[in-house]
């Protein structure tokens, strides 16, 4: 395997052998040292892009990314961006993200913690831009005027018209942030690469759970997030825009979990789509605790009965769909090893007929926040952060599904 062209202090390692079950085969693990918070996307030509935070200390961390033209088997040059120094992953739910406009312009969005005496958790989301394939970058600028309020837990995607859309959580000017929550906002780029047309999607949104922005085959824009409903429940909501983000539907609860917690659990939802419609995955401790899935065949107007796929010790689920309609869910799950708490990675596949298979990757050390994407008719690529006595590293692997 061709190694990543990393900075001099990076080292590409191989961790033992792969893993195989009845229908799932996981390749040997590769790692990127002194790195964490992986995120997966595609460039304007459909190639796999992996980005991460390079460096052990958050105040020194910089965003780096690399592109694979063969579904993750090999990666090209790693581009590290000094203008992103101080990039934060916000409890693992707010990883930096790379997005490509249709014309190849690259946007890198990242949060920087900027605590004040009045608000320890405040910060801002910044963007740097490259119009020459990553050779040069602009200075970083806030995506919009912050007004001194906390902002983060964002997502970014290329839109159907070739521009970039972003959603984020913005804190309110109140000390009662636990019950009031944050505002969920949307903005899009223009031809001058500026974010404009700020729209409020929903108020009273859980402050520290990641959001998800998704564009479907019909050019619709979907957003899911953890909302604080009128009865105090922190359940998952879905909103939809049919006019490229100018207006969004009222937020609808995808399942009445009735999870009431006086704080933010730092566990956001994910979604994807197949020929059968929209699919959602999330964690809750309302009712039967654990990771759940549901789907919608009518663009989010109604939802199927929720299905439970894990116990209450699992968290941080991520979802992707394969061309044949199979869904793949990954998550991290708390376990105990030799009397010490740790986490391991779970993977479940769900065929279009509902058949499920679940595997757990062989235990190494503490592993968290997996991400996954489809790279072919029967293949996946996944990555996650591993923590051990040597620090943090990113582990990535290919998955073949029969």
UniProtKB/TrEMBL annotation:
<dbReference type="Pfam" id="PF13088">
    <property type="entry name" value="BNR_2"/>
</dbReference>
<dbReference type="InterPro" id="IPR011040">
    <property type="entry name" value="Sialidase"/>
</dbReference>
<feature type="domain" description="Sialidase">
    <location>
        <begin position="46"/>
        <end position="255"/>
    </location>
</feature>
<keyword id="KW-0326">Glycosidase</keyword>
<feature type="signal peptide">
    <location>
        <begin position="1"/>
        <end position="22"/>
    </location>
</feature>
<keyword id="KW-0378">Hydrolase</keyword>
<keyword id="KW-0732">Signal</keyword>
<protein>
    <submittedName>
        <fullName>Sialidase family protein</fullName>
        <ecNumber>3.2.1.-</ecNumber>
    </submittedName>
</protein>
<dbReference type="InterPro" id="IPR036278">
    <property type="entry name" value="Sialidase_sf"/>
</dbReference>
<dbReference type="GO" id="GO:0016798">
    <property type="term" value="F:hydrolase activity, acting on glycosyl bonds"/>
</dbReference>
């Amino acid at each position: 395997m061709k190694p990543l062209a990393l900075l001099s202090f990076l080292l590409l390692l191989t961790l033992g052998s792969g893993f195989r079950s009845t229908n799932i085969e996981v390749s040997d693990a590769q790692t990127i040292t002194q790195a964490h918070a992986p995120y997966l996307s595609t460039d304007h030509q459909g190639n796999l892009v992996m980005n991460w935070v390079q460096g052990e200390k958050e105040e020194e961390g910089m965003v780096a990314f690399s592109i694979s033209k063969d579904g993750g088997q090999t990666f090209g040059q790693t581009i590290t961006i000094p203008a992103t120094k101080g990039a934060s992953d916000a409890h693992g739910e707010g990883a930096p993200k790379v997005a490509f406009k249709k014309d190849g312009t690259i946007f890198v969005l990242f949060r920087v913690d900027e605590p004040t005496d009045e608000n320890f958790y405040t910060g801002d989301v910044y963007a740097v831009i490259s119009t020459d394939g990553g050779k040069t970058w602009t200075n970083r600028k806030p995506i919009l005027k912050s007004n001194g309020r906390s902002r983060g837990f964002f997502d970014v995607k290329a839109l159907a018209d070739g521009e970039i859309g972003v959603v984020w959580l913005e804190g309110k000017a109140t000390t009662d942030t636990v019950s009031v929550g944050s505002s969920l906002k949307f903005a899009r780029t223009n031809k001058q690469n500026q974010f404009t047309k700020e729209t409020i999607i929903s108020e009273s949104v859980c402050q520290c759970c990641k959001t998800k922005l998704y564009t479907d085959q019909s050019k619709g824009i979907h957003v899911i997030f953890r909302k604080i409903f009128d009865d105090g429940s922190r359940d998952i909501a879905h909103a939809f825009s049919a006019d490229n983000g100018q207006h969004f539907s009222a937020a609808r609860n995808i399942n009445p979990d009735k999870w009431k917690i006086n704080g933010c659990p730092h566990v956001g939802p994910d979604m994807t789509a197949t020929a059968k419609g929209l699919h959602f995955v999330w964690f809750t401790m309302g009712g039967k605790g654990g990771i759940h899935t549901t789907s919608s065949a009518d663009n989010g107007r109604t939802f199927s009965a929720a299905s439970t796929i894990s116990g209450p010790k699992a968290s941080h689920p991520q979802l992707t769909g394969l061309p044949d309609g199979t869904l793949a869910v990954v998550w991290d799950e708390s376990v105990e090893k030799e009397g010490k708490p740790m986490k391991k990675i779970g993977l479940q596949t769900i065929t279009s007929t509902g058949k499920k298979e679940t595997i757990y990757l062989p235990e190494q050390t503490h592993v968290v926040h997996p991400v996954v994407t489809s790279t072919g008719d029967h293949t996946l690529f996944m990555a996650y952060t591993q923590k051990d006595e040597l620090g943090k590293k990113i582990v990535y692997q290919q998955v073949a599904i029969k």
